[in-house]
């Protein structure tokens, strides 16, 4: 893909590995929106999904491939002919496309998961890559649990995969077990021991179980890897993956030690982060590097004094470099017009079409009638809340709750629109939240769904602050997150629960073939 020896290829797997994070369910339109911002950012390879997993996954990868312009669209496939064919049929619509096939190579995985001997696994590597290469020019091969694979066997597999036509070789730290020095030595060993390694690009795919995913990835780049597999906000299974924003900004900020480049437009990082957070329902922790709310905040008096004298005293990168416009701190209110609102949205990284802008402006005016000052965080919560509601099957129409110290029963009266049909009910509960959620379940039966998380926090300061509520539902092993924001905490709670219900309805249609595995 590139001939520049200092160019690092950014391979984003938010739509595949990221979606495998419990609760991070996305529908087709949401995936298309994320793929669009990834392309706009300059991501080189977008791993759009696992086409064999379900009809929904196949359709998503296909549609993303059809809208692609510059990025290579990639699909994941096990070392099986059916997987590889299905993957090809999904990605073939893109101008540039890739098949990414994998098999486990560690003794532990081969014995207990695959129940295959090493020679049989090696034969599978050759067979799968050869077949994939017969369909596409661009084939990536991964050694699942590569960091716990015996060195000699890993070298044999890598050499065989390259001989069979793989042009990218991925060495995943599947369970987040390795440390930077060890991972450096592993990549360095492959660079020096595999005779045909010059015909392929080595890739990293690091999980964050020990909090070392980014450090391990950067260490591998220093050893010679030239592709990094990562996700927006570090989304992914268990503790997540290497975070794209951290990889990109580390390479950009520390060129003295890491003299490598990416093609990423870092000014779009914050926008992408917010979009992924809003769609998946996964809030970004305030102290998260690069994109956290506090990433550029300075409370210490000493820090503030230094910042006033010279920003470089305590900031190693500018907020503007990741898309934060800290200079634009205009607070809007009920007298603010459409033009000012549109300018504020643009400064915050949102570009909305006319219909979406009209809807957002109406909600802004409603919010401004309820609180005196509308801050950036309010607008972000408002727009993100609107983003989550696009094409939802279940929508809130009317809600009222009766509660208090001298009320015998907490009562919720609810009207919900389900696939265009309005339904009403009244339910009693141990508290207003319990009553509201029971009312929802009366209208939309969820006999096996369990509430795993109910969390409330204020978007801004003050008694008139919007409440942002996160709800997590689990049903038959499937987990979804829902979010809602409103100045009324109970309304935010209901919209969050309904958001989770809508995601659960989507997730019910998704499945995984037996032993689908992961990298």
UniProtKB/TrEMBL annotation:
User: Which intervals of the chain are annotated as region Regulatory domain?
Assistant: 395-519
- Kindly state the subunit structure of this protein: Homodimer.
> Which GO cellular component terms are attached?
cytosol
Question: For the Pyruvate carboxyltransferase domain, which residue ranges apply?
Answer: 8-270
What's one GO MF term for it? acetyl-CoA C-acetyltransferase activity
Q: Which organism is it from?
A: Terasakiella brassicae
- Top-level taxonomy: Bacteria, Pseudomonadati, Pseudomonadota, Alphaproteobacteria, Rhodospirillales
- Tell whether Transit peptide is among the UniProt keywords: no
Protein name (database record)? 2-isopropylmalate synthase
Q: Which cofactor does it need?
A: Mn(2+)
Family membership: Belongs to the alpha-IPM synthase/homocitrate synthase family. LeuA type 1 subfamily.
Name the gene for this chain: leuA
């Amino acid at each position: 893909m590139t001939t520049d020896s200092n160019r690092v290829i950014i391979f984003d797997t938010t739509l595949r590995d990221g979606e495998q994070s419990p609760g991070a369910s996305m529908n087709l339109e949401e995936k298309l929106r994320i793929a669009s911002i990834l392309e706009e950012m300059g991501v080189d390879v977008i791993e759009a999904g696992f086409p064999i997993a379900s009809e929904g996954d196949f359709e998503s990868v296909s549609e993303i491939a059809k809208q692609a312009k510059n990025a290579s669209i990639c699909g994941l496939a096990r070392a099986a002919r059916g997987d590889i064919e299905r993957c090809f049929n999904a990605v073939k619509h893109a101008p540039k496309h890739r098949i990414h096939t994998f098999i486990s190579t560690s003794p532990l995985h081969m014995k207990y998961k695959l129940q295959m001997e090493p020679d049989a696994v090696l034969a599978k590597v050759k067979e799968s890559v050869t077949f994939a290469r017969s369909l596409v020019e661009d084939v990536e091969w991964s050694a699942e649990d590569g960091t716990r694979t015996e060195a000699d066997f890993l070298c044999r597999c890598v050499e065989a995969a390259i001989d069979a036509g793989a042009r990218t070789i991925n060495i995943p730290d599947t369970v987040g077990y390795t440390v930077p020095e060890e991972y450096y030595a592993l990549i360095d060993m492959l660079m020096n021991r595999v005779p045909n390694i010059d015909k392929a690009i080595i890739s990293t795919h690091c999980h964050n179980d020990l909090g070392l995913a980014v450090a391990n990835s950067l260490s591998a780049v220093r050893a010679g890897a030239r592709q990094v597999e990562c996700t927006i906000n570090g989304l992914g299974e268990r503790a997540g993956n290497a975070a794209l924003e951290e990889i990109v900004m580390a390479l950009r900020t520390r060129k003295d030690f890491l003299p490598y480049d990416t093609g990423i437009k870092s000014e779009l990082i914050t926008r992408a982060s917010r979009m992924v957070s809003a769609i998946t329902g996964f809030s970004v922790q305030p102290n998260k590097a690069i994109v956290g709310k506090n990433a550029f905040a300075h409370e210490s008096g000493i820090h503030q004094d230094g910042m006033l004298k010279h920003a470089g005293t305590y900031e190693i990168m500018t907020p503007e470099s990741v898309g934060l416009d800290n200079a634009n701190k205009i607070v809007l209110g009920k007298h603010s017009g459409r033009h000012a609102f549109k300018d504020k949205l643009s400064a915050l990284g949102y570009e909305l079409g006319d219909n979406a802008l009209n809807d957002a402006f109406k909600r802004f005016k409603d919010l401004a009638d309820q609180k005196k000052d509308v801050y950036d965080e309010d607008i972000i919560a408002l727009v993100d809340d609107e983003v989550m509601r696009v094409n939802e099957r279940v929508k809130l129409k009317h809600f009222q709750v009766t509660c208090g110290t001298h009320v015998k029963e907490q009562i919720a009266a609810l009207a919900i629109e389900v696939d265009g049909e309005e339904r009403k009910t009244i339910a009693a509960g141990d508290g207003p939240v319990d009553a509201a959620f029971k009312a929802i379940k009366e209208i939309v039966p969820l006999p096996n769904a369990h509430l795993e998380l109910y969390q409330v926090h204020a978007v801004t300061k003050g008694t008139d602050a919007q409440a942002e509520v996160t709800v997590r539902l689990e049903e038959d092993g499937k987990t979804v997150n829902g979010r809602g924001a409103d100045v009324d905490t109970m309304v935010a709670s209901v919209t969050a629960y309904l958001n989770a219900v809508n995601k659960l309805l989507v997730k019910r249609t998704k499945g995984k073939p037996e032993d689908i595995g992961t990298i």
